[in-house]
Structures are given as C-alpha cells and as structure tokens.
Amino acid sequence: MSWILLPSEVRPDHQERIGPKANVLSLMAREGFKIPDTLILTVGAYNAFVNDGGLRERILLELNRKSFKDMRWEEVWDCATRIRNMFLKKEIPEPLKSYLTENIQSQFSNKALTIRSSAPDEDASGSSFAGLHESFVNVRGTSSILDHIRLVWSSLWSDAALLYRQEIGLDVDKSQMAIVLQETVTGNRSGVVFSQNPSDETQVIIESVYGLNQGLVDGMVEPDRWVLDRDKKNILSHKPAQRDYWVMPVDTGVKMMPLPEDYSGRPPLSDEETSDVCKLAFQAEALFKTPQDVEWTIKNDMLYVLQSRPITTLSTGETQDKRAWYLSLHRSTDNLKALRNTIEETLIPEMSQAAKEMAGQDITVLSDTELANEVRRRWKINQHWVNTYWEEFIPYAHGIRLFGQFYNDAMLPDDPYEFMNLLVQTKMASLERNQLMEDLAAMVREDRQLLECLQTGGPLDVDSEFKKKVDQFIEKFGDLSCAVTGGTECATDTRPLFKLLLEMTVNPSSLASRKNSEDAFVLQQRFLKSFQGAKRKEAEELLDLARSSYRLRDDDNIYLGRIEAQLLSAVKEAKSRIEHADRRKTQPAGLDDLISVVQDFDYGTNIQKVSSQKMENRGKVNPRQLVGQPAGPGLSRGRARVVHHHLDLQDFKLSEILVCDSVDPNMTFVVPLAAAVVERRGGMLIHGAIIAREYGLPCITGIPDATTLIQTGDEITVDGYLGIVTLGETGLGKPGGDDLKENSVMDFEGT
Q1: Three-state SS across 396-431?
Q2: How would residue 588 be classed by pLDDT, with cut points 50, 70 and 90?
Q3: What is the biggest distance separating any 2 CA atoms in the chain, rounded to whole angstroms?
Q4: Is the pLDDT confidence value at 719 over 70?
Q5: So what's the pLDDT on residue 323?
Q6: Gap between the Cα atoms of 725 and 462, Å rounded
C-alpha cells in the first residue's frame, strides 16, 4: 500500500484510504477547481506508525480501561491526553520517516504547509467532524512538519472527536487517519460559503474576513456576512463586521494582529467577488449533488478552494447533535483571555450581587402570592446562572487543557499530567473557606471553656472573638446547613459547622501538607527557561490562564451554590407555610398558588440513596482490588466513609477515606479531615481531584460502583500512584500495626 498519493493518482475506490476531505479535493482538482499544491498521506502511513512498537495496543488498552459509554467528558479528556502524549513520545519509525521526508521535500521544497485531517469517517453522510480534529497552518521545516503530522494523527483521539464518535455510533476502535498536506496559500481575503443556508433553503450564506481563515474558524475575527437569494443569486443583505483584526502568517504558525486602517473601512469582498464565491459554491454543489460548505481564500485575484464538505446541519426537524458543545470546550488563547475578563470582571460580580440581593430580602413578610412569585423569580435567576455556567464557565476550563498541550508539546514529560504540579496552591474559595474553619478549630482547641460550650450546645458569648469570626465565616460562606443537606434544608443553623469544628479539634489539619512550593518553583523555572522572546511570553500567559482556569474550575460552583441556596430558602419558607396552613380550618388567600409552585419545582424530595438491588451486588461481588485513574499521588490506608448523600457528611471522622460518587465543591469542607479521596466519577479536573492535590492527598477517580462495592467502615488502601483501591488487609500490615499505621498517609515519591 502506498503511503502517499497525489490528487491526480486518486481513484474512486480510494476513499477508505484517504478520507472524504482528501477525496473531495482530488476530485475538485481533476474537475478544474483551483486548489493549493497538495499531497495526501494515506491511512497506510498512520497504520505504519501506530503498528510500530505496540502503540495501537496501548491506545486500545487506554480506551478500554472503562466502558466508554460510562465515561464523563472529563474522563474522556484524560484519556485523550494520555493518548496524545503517546504520539508525542513516539518517533516516526524508519523507513516511514525517510519516505515522508523525501516526498515532502521533493513536492514542497521549503514552502510553508497547512496540515489537515482527513479521517475516513470524517464529513461522512449524516455527520460532520468539522473542527473536531486538529489542523495546523503555516508549518515550516521538515522536522516541524513531521511533528505536526503526529499531532494531527493524535487528534483522531481528541476528547471532542471521541465524544462525537460515540454519539453517532461509530466504532472508535477502528478509527484511522489520513492527512492532507497543502501549500499554505497566504490569501488576503478568506471565508466560507454555504450553498444552502442550513436554516433557510432559499438562501446562500457567505462569511468573509481579511487575512487567513484561521481567525474566522477560531471565532476570534468577526466576519462580514452576506445573504443571497439561491434562485436569483442577488444579495439580500450584507452585515458589516467591526474589522479590527486579521490573522496572518508569522515565522511559524499564525498570529492575530490589528487590521491595517485602509482595510477596515471597506468589506473584504466586492459585489463581483461575492458573485464569484456564490458561483463557486453552486459548482461544488453540482459536482457532489448535495449542498456544500466550502472554505476558500483569494490570493492575487485567484480564488482557491481549501476544503469542501457536505452541509450536515440542514433543517430536518430532528434534534441537532452536541458537536457544537464539544467544540465550545476548545478555545484559543485570545478567546480564553476575553472569556476570563468576562467571567472575573462581569459574571462573578453579577452572581455575587444577585446572591447578596436575595439574601438581603426578608421573605417572611411577603404574602403567599408574593412568595410564590418570588420562588418563580429565584428559579429564573438560578436557571440563568446554571446556563451561564455551562456556556461560559465550563469552556473556560479549556485553559487547563490548552496549557497542558503546550507544556507536553514542549517538555515531552513521561507523565502527561506533570503540568498539573504548576497549578496547585492557587487562591481557591474552597481553600479559603477550609483555612478559616481550621483557624476556628484552633481557637476551640486552645479554649477548654469554648470546647465544652460547643460540645453541650450552650450559647456563645456574643462579644467573643470566636463569635465574631463565626459570623464573618457565615456571612461569606454560609453556615454549612445547606451544604450538609444537599440543599434540602437551608436554614440558619450552626450545628453542622460546630460539629465539624469539634472533629477538627482532635488533630490539627492545615494546608502545610500541600505540595512543596519549592518543587513547583523549580518545575516552573525549568519550563519557562525552555523558551525565548515571544514564545516565553506565550508560555507565561498560558500558565497564568491555566492557573486562573484551575481556580475557577472549583470556585464557580461555590458562587453557583450561593444562588441556589437563596432559591432553596424561599422554597423552604413556602413549604413551612403550607404545613402550618394544613393545621388551620381556613386557608389563606394565595395558598393554592404557593402549593402549585412547590409542586412544580419539588425541591429536596429526591434524596439519592443506594438501591437494595445495588446493595445486593455487594454480597455477590467481593473484589480484592478496584482499579481507577490515579488523580493524586500518595498511599493511604484507613476506614472508608461512603457518602451517598450530603447528610452523610455530618458523620465524617478525622482520617477516614472519603468515598463518593463525586465531590461537590460544596462538600470540600470535609477534605481537611480525610486521609484520601475515592470517586466513582473520573477525571483529573473534577473537584475532588483538584482539592485532593491541593492537600497532597492520595486520590483515585473513575472507579465503577465504588460507592456500592465499598461500604462505610471497610478497611481500604488507596494507591494514588497506580490508581488501585485494595479492600481488606494488605501485606503492609494490620490496622494499627507498625508497617503501615491505620488511617495514615505515606509520604514518598514512588512505589
């Protein structure tokens, strides 16, 4: 099988070898369309790479660690990160490397190249992988070209691509990748044209920007937009853009720069050029007999086709796929900077203000009708911020991903998560909350009278320093009554807080056990010293973005929880009035409305519990070891505390091992007490993993049935290095023995 084909050598039966994107370009070239100088790397080249040294088997092993359908998107990202690192660490074997080098140099000499994916299942009928695989523009030098070929191959296993393949039912294990190598055509105008508007079959849509298409594709450069009539071909409307920036080639890669002033005052296309682009779209549609999405550029008045794909989002009345959401997780550096400003300067202050406004309202004085309307109002506010969380906060987590890729590409670490060591010790709201709790516990520990007061439930001295600090804590973080009930009860009740403080007084617990800052500093210096000039600045910016993203990955739920708590407090007031009304002979006006709103929302009635059926599995399956993903290094042995519901947190004891479905950010106040964390859900970026790493605790995520196979009181050993939980006694010694102390954490760097 040939590893490289020219467009002129492609036959009709080659699509499975080269993918639809390469096949389309080859056909268009033979039909007289102007395309850049092109070579096609077949799937044979990809297979030669992954079959060498057992890489294919390692990929499949990674994919089958856990049932794919049971993976959350965070777990899929972890899986994709590990696979990508495999590609980065593996050299292209001989003779493939020599063959590619010779052909690339012969075809392109020293020209800059654009490297595009062309997977056989990409852009197939009924699906579109547009944007889900990586492409690179303006890559120079044979060595760099070969490196980027590996990155395009690895994007076959990106989180977005894997999720989409699962959604549309493709066999992930059989995925392959071909690649299109094109000379980078540096057009001064570029864009896309839809021969049929996905939402209106009577229209054609053209979007155009100055410079390269990368700015439009990444969403960082606003395009001019034309709407044309499909039948008459005349322009129906033109929406001008701001025209502030364009994307142009630099020494290697591309960069967004201010648009020259003489361009900003006029649209990138004349009416005649708009007509030419429209004509191009119809020619492509006629060739492929289906509406087309064509990417193009203009250089020296020559109209080039860069790629063409069928439009798969035409209105059919069916629910659209989630590809757009998968794509939303991936943002450019400039996009993340803008998103950060929006989140930190606008969204968080607005969330805080909304929570403060609701907290300051005395809902007890409202009539029943007014209270019902207030519940509805708070529901809308809460829903608004939940939607904002998914649309803005979750995509901002890509700052961590982007930095991770940048770090791994540059440093080629053996551990693909080494970069996470640079993100710890950030100023998280949950850590601030926990530190304040530890300060309060220290005051109790040093004052026997105060200790006895908390133990007996006696009144606090209103003028005491402790009471003042408790009030300050409650004002900022609440009294934990909402957190320990999972929102079923949100009342002014300091008992949960005081119960936790009493447990913390048994033994000092502080953030001193967190990762050594000196080690993180050395790692940071080694990383930054790898770059010079503009690349050094880019590295510093990405690290800063990643730290902000890492912090907000946890903090956002704290802010969101304050909004929800105020909604639930209104619901509680409504329920209280309904209960009191039941004892009266006459019902006040407006009660029916109150009953209706409570029934509609039904808050706090569905407490999650383990089903008896699941508990039966405990007797049928008695595994020795449970395997998940290592998310925090360390080794710990202790008794498990399985948390099925927030109410279980009230009984958490010092040095127990927290076992749960997932650690909600509002649950992280118990982590200073924990010896380790085990979660059913997986991911290096889930809240439990983040907070565990901050405290230097062993952590394992992604263990199926962890909360049913482990029970409270079980003696377990957590190996955060290997991702293994061992049930029962180990060769490390019995509980309380000298080899490994019960409820202890082993502090060493390897096993």
Answers
A1: HCHHHHHHHHHHHHHHCCCCCCHHHHHCCCCCCHHH
A2: low
A3: 94
A4: yes
A5: 54
A6: 47
The two three-digit tokens of residue 184, written as one number: 């980078």
| φ, ψ for residue 240, nearest 5 deg | -70, 155
Non-local CB neighbours of 682 within 8 Å, separated by 6+ positions? 66, 71, 72, 74, 75, 78, 628, 629, 631, 701, 702, 703
Place of tokens 């979007």: 207
Fold of 4-183: Dna Ligase; domain 1 (3.30.1490)
Residue 196 is given by DSSP the state S
> For the chain, what is the mean pLDDT?
83
Which helix (H) or strand (E) element contains residue 216?
A: helix 214-217
Tell me the CA distances in angstroms from 719 to 1, 180, 253, 587, 709, one per residue in order. Answer: 46, 44, 42, 60, 17
Q: What is the pLDDT of residue 501?
A: 85
Q: How many Cα atoms sit within 13 Å of 385 on the Cβ side?
A: 28
How far is Cα 379 from Cα 405, in angstroms, rounded to an integer? Answer: 39
Q: How far is CA 276 from CA 24, 28, 149, 210, 235, in A?
A: 20, 16, 34, 17, 12
Are 160 and 330 in contact, with CB atoms under 8 Å apart?
yes
The whole-angstrom separation of Cα 359 and Cα 485 is: 19
- Between CA 673 and CA 499 the distance in angstroms is 12
299 strand-pairing partners: 302
Percent of the chain predicted with pLDDT > 70: 85
Question: Quick one: 98 exposed, middle or buried, by C-beta within 10 A (0-12, 13-18, 19+)?
Answer: exposed
CA-CA distance, 184 to 36, in Å (whole number)? 7
> Between helices 533-581 and 687-695, what is the axis angle to 10°?
110
Domain ranges of the chain: 4-183, 189-314, 334-425+515-601, 429-513, 612-746
Q: Do 189-314 and 612-746 fold alike per CATH? A: no
DSSP calls for 562-579: HHHHHHHHHHHHHHHHHH
CATH number of this structure's domain 189-314: 3.30.470.20
**More confident: 344 or 519:** 344
* More confident site: 578 or 47: 47
Helical spans, DSSP H, in 51-129: 55-63, 73-89, 96-108
Q: Is the pLDDT of residue 406 over 80?
A: yes
Higher pLDDT pick, 713 / 670: 713
The structural architecture, per CATH, of the domain 612-746 is 3-Layer(bba) Sandwich (3.50)
The two tokens of residue 422 are 């640079």
pLDDT tens string 609-625: 333 334 444 444 456 78
Would you state the pLDDT for residue 15? Answer: 86
CA dihedral 11, 13, 17, 18 (to 10 degrees): 50
Which two tokens mark 654?
């010092």
Residue 328: C-alpha distances to residues 132, 307, 322, 398 (Å):
10, 22, 10, 9
Question: What is the separation of C-alpha 568 from the centre of its chain, rounded to a whole number of angstroms?
Answer: 28
| DSSP notation for 514-558 | SPPHHHHHHHHHHHHTT--HHHHHHHHHHHHHHHHHHHHHHHHHH
